[in-house]
Design brief:
Strand content: under 5%
Largest sheet: none
Shape: flat
Structural class: mainly alpha
Number of domains: 1
Order of helices and strands: HHHHHHHHHH
Mean pLDDT: 78
Amino acid sequence: MTAFFQGFSVGLAYVAPIGLQNLFVINSALSRPPSVALRTAGIVVLFDILLSLTGFFGAGSLITRSELAKLVILGAGSLLVFVIGARLVLSRNVATAELAMDMPLWKVAWMAFAVTWLNPQALLDVTLLLGAFRAVLTESETTTFILGVTMSSCLWFTGLTAVTVLLKSRFTPRILRVINLVCGLVICGYAVSLAISFVELVQPTLRQ
């Protein structure tokens, strides 16, 4: 059980500060019906668990060693993240069930994938943090440790959704619109940061 609680605490330590995923889940809970928001949280949990497993068992280390992989992730990630942020900034519709129900499941899944797997912050945190723990755990501890990590992801994102849904009734449409705008601008800020990192990574190659 010690390895489980260690994995649980480590999982919370890396998933809680990842702003892009959290902003996506919070915005979904604020602007969509509870059932749709929980479904969105479930999709984020699925991608986050897959990312944790990948990083923990070593495949994620390939990302940190491959310049081409970094370029692809930063380039595609900055573009997709910017699109997500821009949609929030430009959208005039908030908290409408009709709008939420009209969004296809594949689009929700694609956006959840983008904020998780195309987010270099999440990729590096998982690879470095979980990969380091994998190196010091015994074989008998690995299963319970990664189980604790995955459990923290489930509880964090579903709990964040539930709390946000409970508080949503206190917000007027105007406040929700402001929250949309702020979240969108922050996400666009992430995109600009990723784009700068992409340019910095490409510049040495272009000079050669």
